[in-house]
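User: Predict the structure for this protein chain, please.
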Amino acid sequence: MHEIVKMVLLAMIKGIYDSFKGMLVVFYLDKEVNERARNRQNSSAIRQKQVEESSQRPPKKHEKSKVVHNVIQCALLNGGVFLLSVLLFEYVLLPTIDSIFNIMFGAESFVTGVVWLWVKYFILLIYRTAWLIPLFLLSKIINALWFQDIADSAYRYSRGKPTSFPSISMYFADSIFSIVVQCLFLIQTTCISYLPFYPVGYALYYAQMSLLYSLYSFEYKWFNMGWELHKRLSFIEENWPYFIGFGLPLTILTQISESFVINGCVFSILFPLFIISGNEANPVILSNNFGCNTKIFSFVIIVANVIFSRTIGQTKKVPLTSGSR
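Assistant: Here is the predicted structure, written as structure tokens:
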């Protein structure tokens, strides 16, 4: 028993340590990627020159890696624009207008008590429909593109050319099923947080959110490695101590506020670093003697299979994670 506890703690500590690697790698990743590209370009310069002279076409420009640029852009969009606007509105503009009403009409007056509530309601309605929701949707689309570019550049830097799926249809089916499983797992995690015995529910919530954030972070690399969904989930289930440790810092940092929007901004600012960390990490693989496969994704996969079979028809079901590797 003592050895098992020690193994779990060491794996968790290793996961926490690896989660911070992206904060270091990001500073020299672009430089390394561009230097390797220039070396490859110089080694084939003669052959390229011959091809260019024979075809009379202008030489192709080397496309530089922009990982740091994209990470900074994510921070500026999600922190400098989105998060700052939310903080200014909720903690500066609304309190200022409230104070003006109190000064002009008195704290106990009808205007301050009733009229201000209606004014605040319409201000919030306009703010959310004209600014918050459009910016949220726009940032999600832009973030997805930047996240993918960061992940691809990091993968090429450390592992070379990505391995493609056998077919495009399999790629899209795997991606859609993965999104459904992740959404269901998030619902499962939220429900568990409401368990009557608070410490247990609280601990399970953090553990499952850490696993989910680890899946988010590693999925880009595993996609590029050609891993299908059942293999990705099985790997997390069998080595859960490491992945709880890896996702724990991001889980804690995204729980600092009671506002879902603020926590979402914090996630979008930090997540690119965790993508890079996941790409660079070498997860602790527990031995088969450990014997503690959680099968934590099994229930949501069953539900997802039911949803797909009823909405799409006779679709190919993803096998349960237990014993699928």
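The chain has a mean pLDDT of 82.
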